[in-house]
Amino acid sequence: MPYDRSLDENLFSRSWETETDRLTVSVYSYNKGAKKLQITRERRNAQGELGFAKLGRMTKDEVKAVLPLIQEAVDHMD
To answer: What confidence tens digit (pLDDT) does each residue in 4-53 have?
Structure first.
């Protein structure tokens, strides 16, 4: 069965933003299934527009910023 965007429900989403990046912690449930955590990174290009970037490794400041968001997301996974 192919992915159907209309079945993907966003239950929680919070972001942390700097001048160059935005990290977003979200909880999704696909087709009323298990609730799953997603962390995404977006980077600003030369025009200042945000675009998807591989999350990869995170700095200590990034980890400290998203930990409270992850803890909040866990509450939405019950």
So the answer is: 999 999 999 999 999 999 999 999 999 999 999 999 999 999 999 999 99
Structural domain count of the chain: 1
User: Which distant-in-sequence residues (6+ apart) come within 8 Å of 36 by Cβ?
Assistant: 27, 28, 29, 30
Number of other CB atoms surrounding residue 56 within 10 Å = 6
CA atoms within 13 A on the CB side of 32: 0
The CATH number for 25's domain is 3.10.450
Q: Please, which residues have CB within 8 angstroms of residue 28's CB and are 6 or more apart in sequence?
A: 8, 9, 10, 11, 35, 36, 38
Sign of CA dihedral 35, 13, 68, 42: positive
